[in-house]
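Reference record
================
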Amino acid sequence: MKSSRRSFIKKSSVLGAAASLSTLPFSLLANSKADNIKIGIIGLDTSHSPAFTKLFNGENPSPELAGFKVTAAYPYGSRDIKSSMDRIPDYIAQVKELGVEITDSIEAMLEKVDVVLLETNDGKPRLAQARKVIQAKKPFFIDKPVAASFADTQLIYQEAAAAGVPIFSASSLRYMSNAQAVRYDGKIGKVLGCDAFSPATIEAGHPDLFWYGIHGVEILFTVMGPGCESVSRVNTPDADVVIGKWKDGRIGTFRGTRTGKHEYGGTAFGSDGNLVLGKYEGYEPLAVKIAEFFKSGVSPVDSAETLEIYAFMEAADESKRRGGEAVAIGSVK
């Protein structure tokens, strides 16, 4: 990785946190139907879109989600991934029942909302879509995958930081209770290592782990924290096994399953014992963090950590191309 890229990964979180709250296009005190913070969605080709809409627009949302409403959506979205395209008509119907207006362009949607959920399932159009959101100065949550390459992911973060536009991305698996307790509450003392797993189905046009492996990789980084230096990858008939070496000598692994039952989880190893990380807990914990982000303008996940996650996955692809050779994350471009 060039020195400028390394510098950006280190400094990007500082730039994001420094964005003035006065630039947010709504009142932080919104608490009635008349002054709801209006959310727009880009992409109705993923189950995440109706799931978030149901949480924010339900008759009795949790207190943490009160004061928000999804009001407009642009459906597209992937236009060349059939499994995504086929979902769009049903998801349009679902969100319309919840009071969401469907627009015929991203630009029209942006005029109607305060903040954005960029949900397009396909990473390939993400950079172009994110640029429209950034130009409109709308804070946005960008779902997985941020883009279809590390280079595009980095560009999105660079351009958002340069424009002073708050950005946040995370898998919902980051907010598994035990993973959070290990990282922030010292539940098992000093973290010595972690083995994480998730499905890792592959979609053409994306580095292998970007499409679904991101979930397990995010579990791994939630527990271990940033600081991975090199990645090596071993492929088996049923799974991808990726071994990360952290700068302090710790080892963390990700096992991405391509066949069999799809499950999410892992085991964290600590100085005070080990802990099974548990099961997926749904979208609401992430939705709560998104709501907090929209109010504060500060991402709950350091942008440098998010960029390292995507560099880790890109390095895993490079290791695959090199027959399992260790690849330095700093060499990823």
